[in-house]
Amino acid sequence: MRLVTDTGIGNIGRNCRGSTVQHKRKAAVIGLGSMGWGAALSLLKAGFTVRGCDVRSDVLARFAENGGTSCTTPASAAEDADAILVYVVNSRQVEDVLFGQNGALETAQASTVFLLCTTMAPSATTAIAERLEASGMRVVDAPVSGGHVRALSGEITVMASGTPEAFDQASTVLDAISAKVFRLGDRPGPGSQVKMINQLLAGVHIAATAEAMTLAAKAGIDLQTLYDVIRVSAGSSWMFENRGEHIVSGDYTPRSAVNIFVKDLGIVTAEAGKAGAVTPLATAALDLFVEASEAGLGLEDDAAVAKILAAKSGASLPGVGD
Known about the structure:
The protein has helices at residues 34-45, 57-65, 74-78, 91-99, 122-134, 147-153, 164-177, 190-219, 223-230, 238-249, 258-275, 280-297, 305-313, and strands at residues 3-6, 16-18, 26-30, 49-53, 69-71, 83-86, 113-116, 138-141, 144-145, 156-162, 178-183. It is an alpha/beta fold. The chain has two domains: 3-188, Rossmann fold; 193-313, N-(1-d-carboxylethyl)-l-norvaline Dehydrogenase, domain 2, CATH 1.10.1040.10.
C-alpha cells in the first residue's frame, strides 16, 4: 500500500507493437532502463495498458513479451495515454522525448498528466514543467529512489511536487509504482531539489563504500566477513548494504552506472555553487566518479569506482583482473 505524506491513463499508435488488449487505464513509460522497466511492469501488474518506449530493440522485444506494447517513438507511446512517465537519463533527453521530433507532445491529449521521474537540476525541471503546462498538460515533478529491485516490486519512494489536480490525476499511477510518496509542494521543483540532496548522500555513500572495501582488501581483511559485520553496525548505510555486496561478489553488472553519478553529483556541485553552498564531500566523490568514467568504467555499476581506488592502492578485489 502506498503511503502519501503531505509536507507543505485507445488505440494503438503508429510504430508500436505488442499487446492490443484494451483497458480503461492507459499509461506510457518513456525510457525502459532499470527504474522505468520496473515502473512499466508494476503498471502492467496493476491492470494498466502500458506502452513503453526505448531506443533499444532488445528491450522493446522483451517488453512486448511481458505483455506491454512496445513503441519506437515517444509520440506513438503517448497517443491516447492518460499518464506519461519519463525515465530517461538527463534533462536534454527529457526535452528531446517531449518536445523534439516524434516527441510526446505531438500526440498527447490536453490535460494528460506527465510524471517527470528523471533526476534533473531543479531549474531544468521547472523550465520543462512550465513548457508542458503552457501546452495544456499537467505535471508532477516525481523523481524516484529505491533501486531496481524496489522498482520491480512497485515499492519505490517518490519525491513529488505539483498541483493538487496533477496529483489527483496521477494517483492510480503512483499507487502502482510506489510504496511511499512525499508531497513536497504544489509546484514542480521541490521534488527535484530533495532528490538532488538524496543523490549527494547516495554518491558520497557509494564512494565511501568503495574506499572502505578497498582499504579492507589492502589490509587483508576478508571482504565477506567485513560486509557481514559492517552491515549490522553503525557504519552501515543502504548504499553500503547494496553496493558493498556488488564489490564482495565482483559483480559490476550495471544497475545504476558510474555515469549516472557523474551527472547527478555534477548537478549537486553546480547547484551548490549557484547557491553559495560548500560541498567538499560531494566534490571529492564526483572527482572519483569522473576518474572512473574517464578510465572506461562509465557504463559499469557505480560500485566500480572501487576499481580505481584498488588500482591506486595495489589492492586485489574479487572479480577484478581475473
